[in-house]
Amino acid sequence: MTGDATPAVQGLQGITATPILTGPRLGGAASSRNLYAIGVTTTDTGRRDTALVRRARKVDRVLAETYPDARPELDFSSPFELLVVTVLSAQTTDRRVNAVSPALFAACPDAAALAAADRTELEEIIRPTGFFRAKTDSLLGLAAALVERFDGEVPPRLDDLVTLPGVGRKTANVVLGNAFGIPGITVDTHVARLTHRLGWLDEATARQPVKAEHALGALFPRRDWTDMCQRLIWHGRRRCHARTPACGACPVSRWCPSYGLGPTDPVEAEKLVTTQGRA
Ligand code: SF4
After folding, report:
1. Which atom of ligand 1 is nearest to 245's Cα?
2. Can you give the residue ranges of the HhH-GPD domain (predicted)?
3. Could you give the maximum distance between any two Cα atoms of the chain, in Å?
4. Is the shortest distance between the CB of 262 and ligand 1 below 6 Å?
5. Is the domain of 97 the same as that of 164?
6. What separation in Å is there between the alpha carbon of 258 and the centre of ligand 1?
7. Is 27 exposed, middle or buried (0-12, 13-18, 19+ CB in 10 A)?
8. Which of 44, 53, 92, 260 is the most buried (most CB within 10 A)?
9. 249 and 211 within one domain
């Protein structure tokens, strides 16, 4: 992994544990649990930090057992394809993107072909994903930049990826981690929500992707970064929903300070569990 592709991770000595008392919905059953979140700037360490690291890693191990197949739910066979489908996935479902991507990659198998694609034809292919005109602009600009600056190849460096049109840190880390095998921390809406609910990050940190990357990077070995995020995303899509989490059917509830945000009755909670992700 290149240095540029890795967040500047702070060692454990740079972490402080801060009680979460102001979480928006940390009341009721949640309030009696072990509530500590992680900050990234102070040098105070202690037993609570160690406990937080252990608890976070335990949760990740249980999620790994629960979701052994956790992986991106977008279909792709190369870094180029993952980059394109990730851009297309904004504001739509993975299923819709997966429905159009075979035709897209048959017509445009690489960056050079995509850069030379007919705009009208491209719009028609990706129309089902919504915002198709803006996405066509993004794809044409992305492909042109790949051709002009990277010989048509997707660069395996965070600093290069984020210079591409339509590519932010989230997309860049998805591509690094899942197409290049370079550990990356993807802070999407699920990761931000779950890391706060689980008491790993305070709310302010969870809302700031770069800070969240650094703080999460300090909790886990680098080799686990990509899969850990993928497991959180799967858990967020299947059980720890934004509106009503299935707390009574949650395999990590005993380590979660937000237990009780959703129904704790097992039967009621089980009804909220979905078997697939963002369909
Ligand atoms: S489903 Fe409930 S118990 Fe499980 S992680 Fe989410 S908030 Fe915590």
Report:
1. 1
2. 88-238
3. 60
4. yes
5. yes
6. 6
7. exposed
8. 260
9. yes
